[in-house]
Design goal:
The chain is an alpha+beta fold. The chain is about 40% helix and about 35% strand. It has one domain: Alpha-Beta Plaits (2-Layer Sandwich). The chain is globular, with a radius of gyration of 13 Å.
């Protein structure tokens, strides 16, 4: 299994788009079969990154299929329009 973690910093003034983006990610679970688990959260503190995605996939090939799925691409496009920074890590569990 692969755990895929992504964190984002968003541009100020994009709160409505952020909410739409994070709920859009959650809605992919059950729609894209390669996505085994998906959790999003906002930073409870201040500074650092604003939000995080924790997701799980059977293997790296499944992660690649998820990332190239048009439904993920649509949600990702929204993120690209509002983010300042992104960091990610993938590791075996």
């Amino acid at each position: 299994m692969i755990r895929h973690i992504v964190m984002w910093k968003f541009r100020p003034g994009t709160e409505a788009e952020q909410a739409r983006f994070l709920s859009g990610l959650q809605e992919l679970q059950g729609c894209i079969p390669q996505l085994k688990r998906c959790e999003t959260a906002r930073n409870a503190g201040s500074g650092n990154y604003d939000a995080v995605l924790i997701s799980e996939f059977e293997n790296l090939e499944a992660l690649a299929a998820y990332q190239s799925d048009p439904r993920h691409q649509a949600v990702s496009a929204l993120c690209k329009s509002i983010r300042l920074d992104r960091a990610s890590v993938d590791y075996e569990i």
